[in-house]
Write a structure and sequence with these properties.
By secondary structure, this protein is mostly beta strands. The protein has two helices and ten strands, in the order βββαββββαβββ. It has a six-stranded mixed β-barrel with strand order 1-2-7-3-6-5. A three-stranded antiparallel sheet has the order 8-9-10. It is globular.
């Protein structure tokens, strides 16, 4: 099947605020496959630059090996506790969750980790149809990803 033929995933509108005082509103992909020990967000280089996390890296930054779903290993820049994340919906904003940032030269969109989704109270209802809700809406509201 061609890449863009009716594939669904869940993407949310998020606001990212960096420790450098910069903010970006963008879309982010959610998946259970991005497993981390702490809340983390993977961002492409261009968003890292908008948030002024690059080219001059904040103190505490390091390069780490990440194992991808296909078993390959890639190196990413990790910046601990560098960002606050909010989910932005038309009727409410949820968040302010502090997260680590992983910067990827190859990524083309923001990706939220499983632990970050949990802290944001995101519940996946039907990933194939792009349906989700906030934990306090379970059984009452079904939202569709953007």
């Amino acid at each position: 099947m061609p890449i863009n033929d009716r594939l669904m995933a869940i993407r949310l509108r998020v606001r990212l605020s960096s420790i450098m005082g910069k903010t970006v509103v963008t879309k982010a992909l959610i998946t259970t496959g991005y497993e981390t020990a702490e809340p983390e967000v993977l961002i492409p280089r261009n968003i890292a630059e908008e948030l002024e996390l690059l080219p001059k890296l904040p103190s505490g930054s390091e390069v780490r090996n990440y194992v991808l779903a296909d078993g390959t290993v890639t190196k990413l820049i990790l910046i601990p506790n560098a960002i606050s994340v909010w989910v932005v919906e038309s009727d409410r904003e949820v968040g302010g969750v502090v997260a680590h940032v992983a910067i990827s030269d190859r990524a083309d969109e923001v990706l939220l980790s499983d632990k970050l989704l949990s802290k944001l109270g995101i519940v996946i209802l039907d990933i194939g149809e792009g349906l989700w809700c906030f934990r306090d809406e379970l059984g009452k509201v079904s939202r569709r990803g953007i």
